[in-house]
């Protein structure tokens, strides 16, 4: 989830603990008392964590994702992502990202602009450098909490604060191999309530992506990849994925997040310009009994491009 990394409010800690322990934190990224968006979602929408992805598709590409976790659990996390990007001229890429994330009383909304500059070193080797800028609106709805001492939250039913976002990213492509390094926000904003108590804090996350697209024959490609996410104070987390693609028409694969979850995904292209699919992740540790996994739907729309020649190898779906 896009939740902040620590809450100092006693009431908030009790509520979040109930979600994380009872429902099963293992499906989510470990990060202090809070968590981040499910790591496997990054492969579906790289723009949300690496701005250098902007312009990787030499047309207009728009994608949307809806993901729900802990189905049947009150206050379960729900995430919606919407992004679009395109190439402008020979070297510049630009795109927009909208991220809406809710978990219990906590809601976040990101509005982000993404820009990249692409340099072709040789015919087979190129690099892209990206910059992300935007705003984050962080809200806590105290009406959804059982507050024993109303004075603890002041006179307002909601806490809300807007903070800036500044991110950077890098991609390198050599034939069908790709490597990416990024941080979606270099700022570590602290959030304070009416009593000057810190209620939340942003941590700096570092991402690294490595993969290769194998052309098994003229119609089938296999793309294994790994995504690593790191933040200070917790163990690094990694997801391994493999996607099998037939004629850019049918695709499917598996993903494994060690000691956390396993999942699968499948999708298809229709009406030439649209792609749709579904993925499911389930926990592989003791928290499996407390949740019904992660369900994700995705839909994309591509236009003004030759899909067989203008897609970078890390276009996973």
Question: What is the compact description of this entry?
Answer:
The protein is mainly beta.
User: What order do the SSEs take from the amino end to the carboxyl end, as H and E?
Assistant: HHEEEEEEEEEEEEEEEEE
- SS summary, helix count: 2
Query: Could you say which structural class the secondary elements and strand pairing correspond to?
Result: mainly beta
Helix % is under 10%
What is the number of beta strands?
17
* Backbone CA Rg: 20 Å
Give the end-to-end Cα distance, rounded to a whole number of Å.
22 Å
Strand content: over 45%
pLDDT < 50 runs, ≥5 residues: 6-35
Oligomer: single chain
Mean pLDDT score: 81
Strand order of the largest sheet: 1-2-3-4-5-6-7-10-12-13-14-15-16-17
Overall, the morphology is globular
State the major sheet: 14 strands, antiparallel, barrel
Describe how the helices and strands are arranged:
Layout: H1 10-23, H2 41-44, E1 60-69, E2 78-88, E3 92-103, E4 106-120, E5 125-141, E6 158-174, E7 177-183, E8 190-192, E9 198-201, E10 205-212, E11 214-215, E12 220-231, E13 237-246, E14 250-257, E15 261-270, E16 274-283, E17 294-303
Antiparallel strand pairs: 1-2, 1-17, 2-3, 3-4, 4-5, 5-6, 6-7, 7-10, 8-9, 10-12, 11-12, 12-13, 13-14, 14-15, 15-16, 16-17
């Amino acid at each position: 989830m896009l939740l902040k990394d620590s809450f100092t409010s006693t009431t908030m800690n009790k509520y979040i603990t109930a979600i994380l322990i009872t429902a099963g934190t293992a499906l989510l990224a470990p990060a202090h008392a809070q968590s981040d968006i499910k790591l496997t979602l990054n492969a579906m929408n790289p723009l949300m964590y690496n701005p250098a992805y902007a312009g990787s598709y030499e047309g207009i590409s728009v994608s949307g994702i809806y993901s729900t976790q802990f189905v049947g659990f009150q206050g379960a996390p729900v995430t919606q992502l919407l992004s679009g990007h395109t190439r402008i001229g020979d070297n510049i890429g630009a795109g927009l990202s909208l991220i809406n994330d809710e978990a219990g009383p906590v809601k976040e909304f990101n509005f982000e602009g993404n820009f990249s500059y692409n340099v072709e070193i040789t015919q087979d080797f190129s690099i892209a450098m990206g910059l992300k800028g935007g705003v984050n609106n962080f809200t806590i709805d105290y009406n959804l909490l059982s507050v024993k001492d109303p004075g603890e939250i002041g006179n307002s039913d909601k806490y809300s604060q807007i903070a800036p976002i500044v991110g950077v990213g890098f991609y390198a492509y050599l034939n069908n191999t790709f490597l990416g390094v990024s941080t979606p926000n270099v700022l570590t904003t602290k959030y304070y309530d009416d009593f000057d108590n810190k209620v939340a804090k942003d941590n700096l996350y570092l991402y690294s992506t490595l993969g290769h697209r194998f052309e098994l024959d003229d119609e089938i490609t296999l793309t294994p990849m790994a995504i690593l996410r790191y933040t200070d104070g917790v163990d690094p987390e990694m997801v391994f994925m493999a996607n099998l693609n037939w004629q850019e028409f049918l695709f499917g694969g598996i993903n494994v997040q060690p000691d956390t979850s396993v999942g699968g995904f499948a999708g298809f292209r229709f009406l030439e310009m649209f792609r749709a699919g579904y993925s499911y992740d389930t926990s592989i540790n003791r928290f499996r009994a407390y949740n019904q996994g992660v369900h994700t739907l995705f839909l994309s729309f591509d236009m003004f491009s030759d899909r067989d020649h203008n897609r970078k190898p890390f276009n996973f779906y």
